[in-house]
Every structure is written in structure tokens, then in C-alpha cells.
Amino acid sequence: MLGTMLVASLACAAHAVQSCDEDLVTFSDGPQGWIGTTGSTGDTQLEKTGGNPGHHLHTVFNNFGIEFYNDTNAAYFRSLLSHDEIRIGVDLKVEEIDFFGTPVTRPWVLEIRDYDDVPPGYLWVSVWYLFEWVGAEDDWRTFGVTITDTTSSELPKGWGGTGSELPPNYEPSLPANRTFASVLAGADEIAFTTYQPGWAFGFTDFDVRFDNVRFTACSAPECPADFNGDGLVDGEDFSRVLSLWGDCDQDCPEDLNRNGSVDSPDLGLMLGYWGSCEP
């Protein structure tokens, strides 16, 4: 019976649950480094009401596009390669996007920019993700994307790059010497923008509200099954799992998948780490 449980556990429990840290900007404590488009044809204001809820950034502007960017929050850039998975999201409410009085849609894009080693004619090298095209909406909407492999040399599905153009259509692409991971490693700025690389628009009236920027960095512990901290996953750790078998009402390290119970999936996870924890 125990052997059957171990086989089933190893088959269905391949990874320990990740530990995640979320940075949430609600704007109740100020912009926290986020800057919206401002110029002679409009501006961005931090408003106390009308957000989702309360404080938020509100942009009313006439131009080719708008953006909200941050180049000062070190937590964003420090975490891009130091974690296994990154989730980035934001809440948006479009009051109006008009082109000479006619309602239109515009792309809503997340762009991660690197200002180093930039080819001539470009302001930055970037990787970018198109959420969708947005127009006037009745209420707030949440947009987000998850980067499941921060070390990928290839662009993940749905992502594009800038810094070069790829013939025969000369669409935006990464330079030959750059990868998805290298841009993340050198990231200097994160932006939510209506400027989709490769597209150009005329002067447009924007009335947009921006709130609840979420940046979540997740990593699995290097050796979560070494319960006694001796650098090994061995019989002592196995005994710890068996001794606590059943419901776990408190925070039990032995509950590796954090389902409130020490059971066969946890045993399978532990066996996956069996041996030395040294790299």
C-alpha cells in the first residue's frame, strides 16, 4: 500500500509550492515611482477618489499615445532574474479614447526596457507583451501576465522584442546579440503603454485611470524537504513526514504542497529532493 502511494505521489507531485512576495501599489501612499504622461496637451494627476478603489493615477491627454512607467523601484528590476516566476499586473479603466471625436481602441502593452547596449536609431532594447486593444469600458478591468521562465533565451509565447527589425516585413525584433533573459537582466524601466512597437497612430484623446500595480516574484526553496537543516534529505526527514501524517492545523514545513495536510503528495515531493542539498 505504501509503495502504491509513493508511486502515485512521485507521478503527480513534481514541484514544491513556490513562495511568492507581492509588491502592490495602490497609490494611497503616493506614486511610488510610477509616472504618467504629462505635457503641453494634458497631464497625469494622483487623485484620491475614483480609483479601484480610492487613490489612483488619472491621465487626460492628447497625443499619439500614453504610458505609465517606473524606473526607480529597485525591487522590480532586482527580482526579474533572481526568481523562478514573475507576475505583473495592473487595473485599468478607460473613460475615453477618441480620434477626432470618434471612439477608437488602442493597444495596451507591458514593456520591459533596457537602456544599455542600444543599437543606433533606438532609444532602448525591450521585450513587450500585448494584453489586448482597449477602448471605452464601463468599469475597471485587470490585466496581467506571468513570466514562467526568467532565464529563457527565446521570447515566450505572446512576447515581442525591439532593438532591430526582421526582414522581409521589417517587424520589430530583438537584436541578434540579445535574448529575452538578457533584457530582463539589464532591465532599467517597466512601462504600461499604448505605444505598441511597429505601430503608429495620430493624435488621440485619452482619458484613462490606472491603479493597483502588482509585481509578484515567486521562487521555490532550494531544498524545502531538508526539515532539520543538515544539508541532506534522508531518513530523518522521512521520519518527520510520517510522524506528522494527517491534518496540519499549523504552519508545518512538512506540508510541502500547503494543502493543510501531511500526506502522500508531500512524501512524493520529499523523495524528489532525496540526497544532498548541496549544489
Could you give a quick summary of the protein structure above?
The protein is mainly beta.
Describe what this molecule looks like in 3D.
The protein is mostly beta strands and 279 residues long. It has 5 helices and 19 strands. It has helices spanning 2-12, 74-79, 180-185, 235-243, 264-272; strands at 19-25, 35-36, 42-51, 54-63, 67-70, 85-99, 102-103, 106-114, 125-134, 141-147, 159-162, 164-166, 171-173, 189-193, 204-219, 232-233, 246-247, 261-262, 275-276. The strands form 5 sheets. Strands 1, 3, 4, 6, 7, 10 and 15 form a 7-stranded antiparallel β-sheet that branches. It has a 6-stranded antiparallel β-sheet with strand order 2-5-14-8-9-11. Strands 12-13 form a two-stranded antiparallel ribbon.
How far apart the termini lie comes to: 34 Å
Helix-strand category: mainly beta
**Could you tell me the strand content as a percent range?**
35-45%
Give the helix level as a range of percent: 10-25%
Q: What's the β-strand tally?
A: 19
Number of helices: 5
Please, what is the average pLDDT?
Answer: 89
What is the C-alpha radius of gyration, as a whole number of Å? Answer: 23 Å
Strand-and-helix sequence, N→C?
Answer: HEEEEEHEEEEEEEEHEEEHEEHE
Any idea what the shape is? globular
* Unreliable spans: 1-16
